[in-house]
Amino acid sequence: MTTSTDQASAVRYDKDADGIVTLTLDDPEASANTMNERYSAAMGEALDRLEREVADGDVKGVVVTSAKKTFFAGGDLHALQQVQPEDAGRFFAEVEGIKGQLRRLEQIGRPVVAAINGTALGGGLEIALACHHRIAVDDRGTKIGFPEVTLGLLPGGGGVTRSVRMLGLQDALMNWLLQGQQRAPQEAKDKGLVDEVVASQDELLPAARAWVLAHADDDEVGQPWDRKGYKLPGGTPSNPKLAAFLPAFPANLRKQLKGAAYPAPRAILSAAVEGAQVDVDTASRIESRWFTSLATGPTAKSMIQAFFFDLQEISSGALRPDGIDKTTVDRVGVLGAGMMGAGIAYACATRGIDVVLKDVSAEAAEKGKSYTAKLLDKKVEKGRMTAEAREEILGRITPTTDAADLAGCDAVIEAVFEDAGLKAKVFAEAEEQLPDTALLCSNTSTLPITELAENVSRPRDFIGLHFFSPVDKMKLVEIIKGKETSDEALARAIDVVQQIGKIPIVVNDSRGFYTSRVFGTLITEGVALVEEGVDPATIERAATMAGFPAPPLAMLDEVSLTLTQHIRGEAEKAAAAAGQQLPEQPGSAVVDRMVGEFGRKGRAAGAGFYDYPDDGPKVFWPGVREHFTKADVDIPLRDIQDRYLFAMALETAKTFEEGVIESAAAANIGSIFGIGFPPLTGGAVQFMQGYPGGLAGFVTRARELAKAYGPRFEPSEWLVAKAESGERF
Ligand code: NAI
């Protein structure tokens, strides 16, 4: 006999003839389970009944599972984004309420097992950790982990408290909490948060029942930390081994974050260490307090915006024109097997696409292919790929010098030298061989797409696909629509980018598109500060402390000083042709002297703002201080940081004003993933809109900067009007 509750409950209660109760998580009003009011009300009722029936001696054990594709999706992020500092008291109480329920479950006095049928991240994993045993199925790409830190949060539903008690401080922090690793079930088992893995859904509930039956008569049921004599694995923070390891932690963290003020890792560390010294209930309250402080603060809101909502908006196809069927490519031609072409070939081949990799010489084409071989070798060495898989991927790349091999390609991606004439020539050569349906893409980083399109026979099918270096690591691809580019070509380009596992943003044609334009303003501020006499170490540290993964002078070395001279020269030519004159660019004299007088062209030349010794990390070239730094300059750190952030944000606003970019999500994601705008800000638009006082506050501060540092910080009339009307991007 099975007795069930209402089918429409978010936590269904079924008891079978053996006395095994199954709690099935199944929110009736959503496609995934989240920690909303329906969940907590239903869980409360289920626990009331469970406690009654356990007291009556009717329950052998409990299985917790889910009827959704994923086990449980975690917290309700929409609700989390609304929580304000003044809501802290209410929020804390709600968190404690949900945690109190899980505490009741783990102290029910009968064995409780989590049957994890699909992905269990964040709150989902926290429910599973409140169970006494965890079995996961490995058949649908299930992921297990605590991604909270990547959203500026911590696992505040008991995740810190329980993982520390299961694994010890060191393993819990390093393997799960501080980096938000998402692991497949087997890996999760190896790292201690899963106990058993089964291969198919059919095996899951039988395995869970078998575990309950095997433990139904145990003398001691429950969590290890609720038993007498429980000791924290690896010892408490006063243990000599941990005492040696823990003090280094905040310092390492600071180093890893380069001094940037990410509140979440520090809160996680505090919650874990403070919690490790007290009983489980006190630890859980400490965790709730830290969680509340993160959830009510600004950083989590910004990070949730970018890393959850914006990414979701983009991956769900918001930038893709409507009414066009999804497409895939089987065979892609890559023209030019240099740094970018080789990387693009790798990205395609690893996603199952055949690649024709064409260059002018057989050596160059082979060299491009060997780039993929090297990357794959590393994976094989690390045990992340089999030798057979390596062979299969490599086998997909055909290096060639013969354009005839391009026959049958669904798309070509051109990545030859940055020269409009050469690009026209290789497209003409390719078009003779390609089917007349092939998508024509250029990876140009600076040349206007509309002009390049004039040289092909089908400008409607021509589009910019701007990859970032190194292609295998950089997730972003900026798609540039030319004047003639058709909606169909845009849809197909988005499909290609998604097929190779990258994130597309869409922009309209403009010199420097979106990303390079905005990036250029960071570089300009960096060299302007050199010109003003600021010490290079201060220039760089201000950036990393503001959360930039790479500071401006290091980045300028990376892209090379000569390239910026070239881009500047081209922009001046274009302006002159239009009868205009570009405004003086601060810092350009520094670049000219660095290159002209001192021969310091950048990283590739081994000499830029930094020296690059063979036997160690880069160091500042002493000449920068000698020739440019002034002892009596003292610009406040906050102003330097704001100059970077505001220069980039104001340029972002300008690209909206000019219609180059149209989506706030695309600007946030493009600025973070393409050009290293500090992730903790949530991206360039979120930075403006989330600024204290909103866009109006941003405008006020921009005017202050304009007064102190020059008219480039003056907000445009368009932006001021937007701020005054309260309109959002
Ligand atoms: P690269 O100099 O490493 O490679 C260019 C390759 O094109 C060379 O292997 C060359 O032999 C080949 N090539 C020249 N003429 C050819 C022809 N007629 N047929 C076939 N191949 C030919 O240059 P890189 O850095 O890979 O840049 C390529 C393109 O990507 C440029 O348009 C550049 O602006 C753009 N880009 C570069 C980025 C970077 O970070 N380097 C980032 C984004 C775009």
Describe this protein's structure.
- The protein has 729 residues and is of the alpha/beta class.
- The chain folds into three domains: 11-300, 2-enoyl-CoA Hydratase, Chain A, domain 1 (Alpha-Beta Complex), CATH 3.90.226.10; 331-510, Rossmann fold, CATH 3.40.50; 516-659 and 691-725, N-(1-d-carboxylethyl)-l-norvaline Dehydrogenase, domain 2, CATH 1.10.1040.
- 49% of the residues lie in helices and 12% in strands.
- Helix 14 packs across helix 15 (362-381).
- 1,4-dihydronicotinamide adenine dinucleotide (NAI) binds at residues 335-341, 358-360, 364, 415-418, 422, 426, 443-445, 466-469.
- One of its GO terms (molecular function) is enoyl-CoA hydratase activity.
Give the strand order, joined by hyphens, for the main sheet.
15-14-13-16-17-18-19-20
Number of domains: 3
Summarize the biggest pleated sheet.
8 strands, mixed
What is the radius of gyration computed over CA atoms, rounded to a whole number of angstroms?
Answer: 29 Å
Say which CATH homologous superfamily of the largest domain is assigned: 2-enoyl-CoA Hydratase, Chain A, domain 1
What structural class should be given to the helix and strand makeup? Answer: alpha/beta
Please tell me what the overall shape is.
Answer: globular
The stretches of 5 or more residues where confidence is low (pLDDT under 50) are none
Keywords: Fatty acid metabolism, Lipid degradation, Lipid metabolism, Lyase, Multifunctional enzyme, NAD, Oxidoreductase
Protein name: 3-hydroxyacyl-CoA dehydrogenase/enoyl-CoA hydratase/3-hydroxybutyryl-CoA epimerase
GO molecular function, one term: NAD+ binding
Pfam families: 3HCDH (PF00725), 3HCDH_N (PF02737), ECH_1 (PF00378)
